[in-house]
Amino acid sequence: MFDSGLGGLTVANALMRRLPSESLLYVGDTARVPYGPKSPETVRRYARQIGEWLVQEGVKCIVVACNTATAHALDALQAALPVPVIGVVEPGARAAVRASRGGPIGVIGTSGTIASGAYTKAIQQRAPLARVLATPCPLFVPLVEEGWVDHPAARLIAHDYLAPMREAGVDTLVLGCTHYPLLTSVISAEMGAEVRLIDSAEETAAEVARILNERGLLHPPTEQHAPAPAHRFVASDAPQHFLALGGRFLDVPLTAVEYHVFT
Ligand code: DGL
Fold first, then answer.
1. Which of 182, 200, 218 represents a domain boundary (last residue)?
2. How remote is the CA of residue 43 from the centroid of ligand 1, in Å?
3. Of the chain's two ends, which shows fewer C-beta atoms within 10 Å, N or C?
4. What confidence tens digit (pLDDT) does each residue in 159-191 have?
């Protein structure tokens, strides 16, 4: 699996809980983060380089844990790579349609994700009459990277960004970016407890389990005394920084991070 940086570890976390016998190889493209403001062509090139490397490393399936990379590159990766490639947008859209009580559905994400229209398209494919409001929240990513998840600045920025969502009365809000689940309490305080927040991590983990099962690729349940699954974490820059901050996204301590340059 890969993300532009640390944020995709929220998806890794969900996968580890859902599929505890599987070994993960996680790439955080820390040399080139953020993907959010970059052009679709650039994000596709980065995603292709990482996807090809993961295949060389022998993975049986790839999860694009980054919303922006899913929005811009999922189709290209699925066409180019010989293993199943799963993104986070479809699972998030599916969960949103299920959660909505018929009111408007809000989507927040990076500038690239929102400009791509990927979530709106995916939601309206399932619910053609759904009203979808999408707005970029670019400052949320640096807030989370700084650990300012419960900072007055986060509340102020959320208040401003989310005003159109509140005014439109959305009943469901998709957190369409890896980092946003860490701002859940600020976002929920702004939107009100009755608005359902959708984090695509859980839904994506369920989709990975379903696809591996369908294709006979699931690892058999780890038996007692069998070796534990071996997870690897790779960063394209500053692996020590990744090591120090990764636990914030992962819930479990990280013990080692490898360094690899993608070209
Ligand atoms: N991982 C990105 C996403 O989910 C957020 C960070 C970035 O802009 O690279 O869209």
1. 200
2. 11
3. C
4. 999 999 999 999 999 999 999 999 999 999 999
Q: What is the CATH classification number for the domain harbouring 216?
A: 3.40.50.1860
**Residue 196 CB partners (closer than 8 Å, separation 6+):** 99, 100, 171, 172, 173
Question: Which of 1, 4, 26, 139 gets mutated to test ligand 1 (max ligand atoms within 8 A of its CB)?
Answer: 4
In angstroms, the CA 29 to CA 134 distance is 26
Q: What count of Cα atoms within 13 Å lies in the side-chain half-sphere of residue 100?
A: 25
- Rounded distance, CA 13 to CA 34, Å? 21
Instruction: Note the pLDDT of residue 191.
Output: 98
Residue 98 belongs to what domain range? 89-200
> Are 134 and 119 contacting, i.e. CB atoms less than 8 angstroms apart?
yes
Q: How many Å is the Cα radius of gyration of the chain?
A: 18
Same domain, 100 and 175: yes
Question: Which pLDDT tens digit goes with each residue over 54-107?
Answer: 999 999 999 999 999 999 999 999 999 999 999 999 999 999 999 999 999 999
Q: What is the pTM of this model?
A: 0.95
Q: Ligand 1: does its nearest atom lie under 6 Å from the Cβ of 32?
A: no
Residues 94-109 have pLDDT tens digits of 999 999 999 999 999 9
Classify the C-alpha dihedral 139-142-145-148 as positive or negative. Answer: negative
**103 and 82 fall within a common domain:** no
